[in-house]
Amino acid sequence: GEDISSTEIHNCLNCGSNQLLPLYLSTSQTMIGFLPNSLPLYYECQNCSLILFRKQCDPDSVALLYDEYERPKSNESELIASCINNKGKSHFLEKIKGLELVESLDMKNISMIDLGGGFGEFSCLAKTRNPSWDVTCVDFNLEHVKNTLKQYDVKSKSLNFLNDNFGQNYDLISALHVIEHIPFNLLLSFFNKIYDSLAINGFLLLTTPNYDSPLGKLFDYHLAYPPHHQLILSPSWISKFVEDHNLFRIFKESSAAVLLENFESWFSYYEKTAPTEES
């Protein structure tokens, strides 16, 4: 029932260009209410390639998008266990690939914080695979899951990590599917907060839907998820952004595909709901 404030964009918030190409939904999607493909929800800047949701959420309203309606009550213990055991949980391969990138560095006894941790699946997976790590999960509200996280020896912090300080000297900060949820006007400050919170030679593990992916462009579910996805990004755009602002050096990249990881359920769904025979 809260009032969420947003601002209609007319120019690219990154480079200021007014050359904005409207993007239209192409697939049918129940989670966003079968929105029509006659109205563009996102714009792609023809100058810098940033994709923006056309109504950028005002900074003070971001946390209001993530309430009990967006994330209804569920069996958190079962969700976490199914993720760890790879039983019916999506994004599992992505989580494993992300951890393998970090584990290949052979760092021991590291301090890790997982921003926007949701139910804590990734935090618990990281702790289970690496018992020596000191793992903390952070999100706007973790009261519903903090006891479950404690069972996995994962610490929890309920705070607005876009505004509040979340600590210092972390060897690893992870943000899985977080930055696409952040309005552009908060993106640089979010990266700066992470940079300031990392230990010397610390690492940021980042995942986000990849607009450069041909598969992603065919199926716009993970690209166009309004109003939660405020941005649609790509490795090339992120690399340039962090380099321009002297933030991070890209160490390694990898990819995973939720559509292919769970192809039986995804493609049977598309077969039933695709708006055209060609689709």
Largest sheet: number of strands, sense, barrel closure: 5 strands, parallel
Q: Total helix count?
A: 9
The stretches of 5 or more residues where confidence is low (pLDDT under 50) are none
Widest sheet: strand ordering: 8-7-6-9-10
Gap from first CA to last CA: 37 Å
* Strand coverage percent: 15-25%
Count of extended strands: 11
The SSE order reads EEEEEHHEHEHEEHEHEHHH
Walk me through this protein's architecture:
- With 279 residues, this protein is α/β, with parallel strands linked by helices.
- 29% of the residues lie in helices and 18% in strands.
- The chain has helices at residues 76-84, 92-103, 121-129, 146-151, 184-197, 214-218, 235-244, 258-261, 263-273, and strands at 6-8, 20-23, 42-45, 51-53, 55-57, 111-115, 134-139, 155-158, 170-176, 198-207, 231-232.
- The strands form three sheets. Strands 8-7-6-9-10 form a five-stranded parallel sheet. Strands 2-3-4-11 form a four-stranded antiparallel sheet, with no helix packed on it.
- Strand 6 (111-115), helix 3 (121-129) and strand 7 form a beta-alpha-beta unit.
- It is globular.
Summary tags:
11 strands, alpha/beta, 9 helices, 279 residues
Task: Break the fold down into its secondary structure elements and pairings.
Layout: E1 6-8, E2 20-23, E3 42-45, E4 51-53, E5 55-57, H1 76-84, H2 92-103, E6 111-115, H3 121-129, E7 134-139, H4 146-151, E8 155-158, E9 170-176, H5 184-197, E10 198-207, H6 214-218, E11 231-232, H7 235-244, H8 258-261, H9 263-273
Concise summary:
The chain is built from nine helices and eleven strands. It is α/β, with parallel strands linked by helices and 279 residues long.
